[in-house]
Amino acid sequence: MNIENTVFILCLFIATTTQEEKTGTPKWGEWSQWTKCSVTCGNGIKERIAYKINSYGHMTNESLLDHGFCFDQQYCPVDGGWTFWFPWSVCSKMCGGGTQFRTRACKNPEPRAGGKHCVGLSQESQDCNKDPCPTIPPDFDVRTCALESMFMCESKIHCVNKTLTCDKTLNCNDGSDEKNCRFVINDIFYMGSKLCVLITIINIFMYLKLRR
Ligand SMILES: *[C@@H]1O[C@H](CO)[C@@H](O)[C@H](O)[C@H]1NC(C)=O
Ligand SMILES: *[C@@H]1O[C@H](CO)[C@@H](O)[C@H](O)[C@H]1NC(C)=O
């Protein structure tokens, strides 16, 4: 007997008994709840059962099994995927060769149910601001640093005129005159701190969104 025949006979049986149900005695009891799907990922089978009620109204052990198709993907393996790269961090140095890095997360989607983890690195770095820092002029006199109009560099061995800070040109021997007013993100220079704050908020927001 091949499968097609079996299915045909089963259907015929159900059809007959359904007919019997309509005519009254003996009756079939209520269908049970469907069982859980036979698989947790993909197409499966679910079952329910009904027992025959005899002419005295008692449940007999004669039962009828009904099959249904079900689809469950709750535990299907999901391979991980990378998020986009977050923007490059601010370069560690303003001049003389620094490093910056960027990260991405394996959360788009997150691997689950045995799915593969993302392939590749979650962090990468690159050299940045490779141009040499300005040197201290040979005739530099450290006493000028005491003047009101002068800006002390972070190195504490060099100072420049205050009007030169945040002028988009490095003047300090360590680049610190531009450090707090210039932000490098994805190789683009941004001036001012407001934009920096905004970008930080957006990044935090996106990070939190991806964590969920
Ligand atoms: C139902 O019960 C009768 C009598 O107790 C028994 O002979 C028969 O094998 C049972 N049938 C099934 C399907 O369990
Ligand atoms: C700093 O620059 C201002 C304006 O350019 C100038 O008037 C002042 O003399 C400079 N100070 C020094 C110490 O060079």
UniProtKB/TrEMBL annotation:
Residues 1-19 form the signal peptide. This is Uncharacterized protein. PANTHER family: THROMBOSPONDIN TYPE I DOMAIN-CONTAINING 1, THROMBOSPONDIN TYPE-1 DOMAIN-CONTAINING PROTEIN 1. Disulfide bonds join C166-C181. Keywords: Disulfide bond, EGF-like domain, Membrane, Signal, Transmembrane, Transmembrane helix. Pfam families: Ldl_recept_a (PF00057), TSP_1 (PF00090). It comes from the Eukaryota. The chain crosses the membrane at residues 188-208. It comes from Tegillarca granosa (Malaysian cockle).
